[in-house]
Amino acid sequence: LALVGAALAGILVLLPIPVMDLLMMLPMQLLIAFGVMAISKRKIGVKKLVPLILVYSLIGSAMGLGLEISLLFIGKFLLAPFAFVWCYLLGELVLLLGSEEH
Question: CB neighbours of 66 closer than 8 A, spacing ≥ 6?
């Protein structure tokens, strides 16, 4: 699920819509985090997960925007692999933070 969500995020940021990375990263990362948590049967509190995703999403969006602005022509194309890796790492982070249900 993390790979599929990350691949979808990588494709969505390539759309020629201004601030698409800011608009789509938060919902995509919420879906990835809750999906990974549900499939892996890991337990992590929503009060702990939502602020983590908000901060993670804001940091990723800021870094992606910086990449896009600093490298005007190729920044958009470098944003796709960045978004893929950033979203996939969120799934791994949820796995690390969650405790197994018994």
Answer: none
Longest CA pairwise span in the chain (Å): 51
DSSP result, 57-71: HHHHHHHHHHHHHHS
Q: In whole angstroms, how far apart are CA 78 and each of 27, 33, 62, 74?
A: 21, 24, 14, 6
Q: What tens digit of pLDDT does each residue of 40-57 get?
A: 877 777 788 888 888 888
Answer yes or no: are the C-beta atoms of 21 and 29 closer than 8 Å: no
pTM: 0.75
- Contact, 75 vs 18, CB < 8 A? no
Which is it for the CA torsion 75, 80, 83, 86, positive or negative?
negative
